[in-house]
Amino acid sequence: MKEIKHLFFTYRNGAVADTLRRYGVPHKTIFGLDVPRLAEIARGQTPSVELADRLWADRDVRESRLLAAYLYPPQEVDMDKAMALARDVRTQEEADMLAFRLFKRLPYAGELLARLAADESCGRAARALEAHLA
Fold first, then answer.
1. Whole-model pTM?
2. Which residues, in sequence order, are CB contacts of 95 under 8 Å at separation 6+?
3. By percentage, how much of the chain surpasses pLDDT 70?
């Protein structure tokens, strides 16, 4: 985790971070990393539920939440875990990243979409997954 935070700091982009803050991104810490840089960092990590959970739990750091979506191994995420993640989404960017990097790769993605759509607290995640399954 310390290595990941060091990479966030190394690759920070103040201009992007400032723009995201102006648009109301709710995270206390925004390093301003773009998706290709997050993907590069993800390639250097071993996917695991434990690491992804630690990153996802770091609610104050935008990049931690986005990187977590890369590191959840789809074969280890059950329906309950997917629903819990969807209910905890704070931004559309998080919903999009979860849908693109994790949810659409789940063998039960269609069933997940139906459950997300039926749960009012999962609207962002439902719309994101629907777009990525289309």
1. 0.94
2. 86, 89, 124, 125, 127, 128
3. 100
